[in-house]
Amino acid sequence: MRNAGYASNRLDGNATRGTWTRRRFLRGIGVAVALPAFESLLPRLGAAEAAGATKAPRRMAFVSIPNGVQQDHWFPTGDESAFELNRTMRSLESVKKHIQIISGLDHINATPGPDGAGDHARANATLLTGVRARKTAGSDINLGISIDQVAAKHIGHLTRFPSLELTCDKVRKSGLCDSGYSCAYLYNISWQSATTPMTPEPNPRLAFERLFGAGTHGERRKVTAAREEAQRSVLDFVLDDAKSLARELGSKDQRKLDEYLTGVRELEKRLDNVDAFGELPDPAAETPAGIPADYGEHMSLMFDILALAFQTDSTRVATLLLAGDGTNYAFPQIGIPEGHHYLTHEQGRSPDAAEKVAQIDEYYMRHFAAFLEKLEKIEDVDGRSVLHNSMIVYGGAIADGNRHTHENLPVILAGRGGGELRTGRYLKVTSQPMTNLFLGMLDHLGVTGVDTFGDSTGRLHAI
């Protein structure tokens, strides 16, 4: 606190040179801590990528759905290339040639095993990690790094954001949520490490402003430039002030100061990247007002933000949690007042409940289809579409929401990964871990040196 007080005195003493106040200084510190990342430019591509078949970046995203799917209406009919989309996927007809429906993928670590109840939390936790979550509602959560973060560690330096995490659900990192499992497992699908989830952003406005800055179209660059200049001024002051303060500290406080300055220097590095990545993109889109009351509108906004993030090359790795597994959302927009989770457990004995679950599945799918159609219409730097150069997984780690099965999961892989994936087919693979698919995707993303992941038994080369 001495440092903060000393800072405010110095800044207030220079009132003739500006309008700094103690409140403005503290706000400046907050801005520095919340520094946004910035867009990657194509000249920063690695030599190997620039010399490849496509000069456009390749992207990877994961979209998570809750509570399994209505089994009678999910999988297509027909063979690999001559197939008909079943009822749930009919909204994908216009992008059928850009997708693969994959059957035979499992997440065995989501099954009860010795841990008993808690399938929804385990499914959510296992989805992108392939790891069995430690059953605890305390602080000793333990899982594993997720595949998106593996990718981000390899290619995240190429963009303003190493990765982007979005959600249309709550944000929780503690507490009891499902039969002895921490809420951290149920509301996070991206994990930086075994004990650290990547907190997703639920507010479309905050997500948008983080990507593109505050203000209206045409104002955002000016607002962001002013913020960056303020951050540089604050950092210069903090480092100068810390040098004089260090002489007065004992050894224990010296260590604390060193830790603090390490964080400040990291901010300096991030500020240096401002110049390296060029101007902040300023899409001709309105800033969202916040979290809408309508769930469908919430999903649409998050899909639009993800599309803009890919279009501007602000990130190449993203996750979108549509709802934590086990959610009991109602869908009055389509005439369904009952909760989703409740209906999944009624569908085995009630045709009306089964029909409503099918309608909910279609509702989710229509939003995903609209997202893919948008990506297909966005021209990438190589003349292809952003969808062509992407790999987007849609699905979950529960198959049948009534019986809580975790085999033969609902999985769609959309996009051609820059032309390397064979799309427009129904791919039936022998029963194997879903993590095998993830390893195969890393190969097409250009990530090397990752031979195993989660419970993988090999690579799914067939994609």
Task: Provide a descriptive summary of the structure in words.
By secondary structure, this protein is an alpha/beta fold. The protein is built from 13 helices and 13 strands. The protein has a domain at 46-213 and 290-445: Alkaline Phosphatase, subunit A (3-Layer(aba) Sandwich). The chain has a 7-stranded mixed beta sheet with strand order 5-10-1-11-12-4-13, with helices on both faces. A two-stranded antiparallel sheet has the order 2-3. Strand 2 and strand 3 (83-84) form a beta hairpin. The protein is globular and about 75 Å long. Residues 1-54 have low confidence and may be disordered.
Helix fraction? 25-40%
Q: Could you give the order of strands across the largest sheet? A: 5-10-1-11-12-4-13
Please tally the helical runs, counting DSSP H or I stretches of 4 or more residues.
13
From the alpha-carbon coordinates, what is the Rg to the nearest angstrom? 24 Å
In short:
The protein has helices at residues 2-13, 22-33, 47-50, 119-126, 147-155, 183-186, 204-212, 220-246, 251-277, 295-311, 340-346, 351-377, 434-445; strands at residues 59-64, 77-78, 83-84, 99-106, 164-167, 176-178, 181-182, 191-193, 196-197, 317-321, 390-395, 411-414, 425-433. By secondary structure, it is α/β, with parallel strands linked by helices. Helix 2 (22-33) crosses helix 8 (220-246), helix 10 packs parallel to helix 12 (351-377) and helix 11 (340-346) crosses helix 12 (351-377).
